[in-house]
Known about the structure:
The structure holds two protein chains of two kinds.
Chain A lengths: L4 H22 L18 H28 L2 H32 L9 H21 L5 H14 L2 H11 L19 H44 L1
Helix pairs in contact in A: 1-7, 2-3, 2-5, 2-7, 3-4, 3-7, 4-5, 4-6
Chain B lengths: L5 E10 L2 E11 L4 E4 L7 H8 L7 E6 L2 E5 L12 E3 L11 H12 L1 E2 L3 H6 L15 H18 L5 E5 L7 H16 L3 E5 L11 E4 L2 E4 L16 E2 L4 H13 L1 H20 L10 H16 L3 H6 L4 H8 L7 H18 L7 H23 L19 H13 L4
Parallel strand pairs in B: 3-9, 3-10, 6-8, 8-9
Antiparallel strand pairs in B: 1-2, 1-4, 4-5, 7-12, 10-11
Helix pairs in contact in B: 2-4, 4-5, 7-8, 7-11, 8-11, 8-12, 8-13, 11-12
Amino acid sequence: MSKRGAEGILLLGFLGIGLTLGLALLKAPSVSINAFESPDAQRIFYWHVPAAWAAFIAFGFLFVGSAMWFFKRSNLGWRMHVAGAEAGLATGLMTVWSGMVWGAAEWGVPWDWTDVRLNTFGLLTFLALFLVLGRQSQPDGVETRDTFSTFGLYGFVLVPITYVATRLWQIRHPGPVVGGGDGGSLAGEMAVILFIGAISFTIFIIGHILMSMRITSLEQRLERIQKSMDKV
Amino acid sequence: MTDALLSMNNVTVRRGMRTVLSKLNLQVSSGQVILFNGTNGEGKSTIIETATGLIPLESGSVHHHGELLIDKSGKAGKPKHPFGLTLQADGCMGSQRMEEHLLTAMDLTGSRIEMDSMLERYNLKHRKHDLIAQLSGGQRRKVAMLAGLIPGFTSSDPRLIFLDEPGSGLDQASRVSLIEDIHYLRGKGHALLIASHNKEFEECATHQYNSDGLVEIGHGPSPTITRENERLIPAKTSIALRTGIVTNNRTMSTLAYNGVAGFLTLGILLALVEPTKLDTGTIQRSGLILSSAFAAGLVGDNMIQLLHEHRSLAWWRAHKQGIPSSYIHGAVLGFALTLLTIFAMDLTISWELPLIGSFLTTSTMFLVRMFDLTSARLARPRAAFTRILTPILILPFALLVQWITDSNLI
């Protein structure tokens, strides 16, 4: 990929996210006032769900990268770990923030500490925050990479728990809207806007990950050059 | 291979971004004294720490007395034969008394000896009951070095003794005593590995290890030093548990850190909420009762902070006989905080809730301690932001509070 390829994909993702937001606010059909406490706030859904989808892609990347470093000592794996953590933090925060706004309008509270889905997803975001800040606090080396890869591997346990949480313990958070059975499917314009959102966030996360991997690669190159200069 | 006390086979180790040891093979037998005296950064300390299982391997394996200690997969066995270890950073907690640290080193070997003659040789007897924190750097070094030699003094069977820069900071008289002790221990059939730049150790070494590999040192016959056999005293068990209790009793660190967090939480909640106005059977009421015990646990195990001093944690980890903890004090604190909350809320006393509070503090402390221990290998473990992960404990806490509410325990 050309040097500017990642930036191009990221920009395309941003444009798609902007389009999704516009369509959600201006074009998406209104929902029934009987089904929702705050029907207007439901439009956040078109941002919230694709952001969560992108976060799961990022966490998947984080897991694969952690495993590749931990078991194969792959430098590519470490770059994937770093990129997955950074992208997971970005999209995780988007999901949590949009969910809190929606929750405050719909439930009257932004957060419920007893809801399993909210908490496990929040924890994934905290894990990403820990991995990003923690890595920046340490010099690069096998000790740093092993430790944070370990947290990345263990933390991934939260992904399937988060995914099945609303199926097993539905407390406040609604059930799945795609692939969730009879009660959870979307139709028509709503599905189209959600689909555009999912594609846009997927493009965004791919661009983010590629950019992040390139930056990590440049950091490693800089460190190698500095080390060789130290020896002179 | 079973004749060798130490076998390092094809060992590769990376530290930072550098491969420090590459396909190292080393066999050490009874009665050998191996001196590592390479230049700075050549990996002397890395060999010592790898041989004691402290550093994960990229390839190869390490065996003690023919038994696997650690291999590439990270599979690590508990050493069946105690060994002595002196780390370059001493590996002793400032909050322990000198005598306690040496008794701990003896208990790890399975038997104790009278320590006064040993202390007299190093002019330490008058400091026996002092805290290690009160000793000078040189005196602390002597204690660390003696703790490493102790398995040799207490055992008539061959033992491995690892000494990283044992002579550093020691006065001339102590260095003479140390060399005499090394001759004595070699004579007893123990194997010693010494990392040092100090030329004096060449006098007592049988082999030298440098970039060319293991080379026999061709000096004349070594002096034979005989001493009266030490009278062995039975060792005490539950070493890590005892150390945790004694150190906590002395420093009151659990009360100072976890206790203060719990009391502050209770105080703030009681200032904000009128407990008598909360309806019976509500989640808020149950949450209020357990919040201080939970906050106390979230602080984590302060023993880990104490163990970071002089790399004491690494010393304990190498011996693989447990790491001191504050669980007992945490359990008592959780019980007391919950009981205090019940009094403050003017509720009927029951034993179930304080016991749940005790369990809550201890289990929370345990999990936070796990985060700290997992990040202990980092170059800057205290800068790793592990507390960001503590929200993972809020959901279990919320579910526990929900269960208490549903169970009508209040």
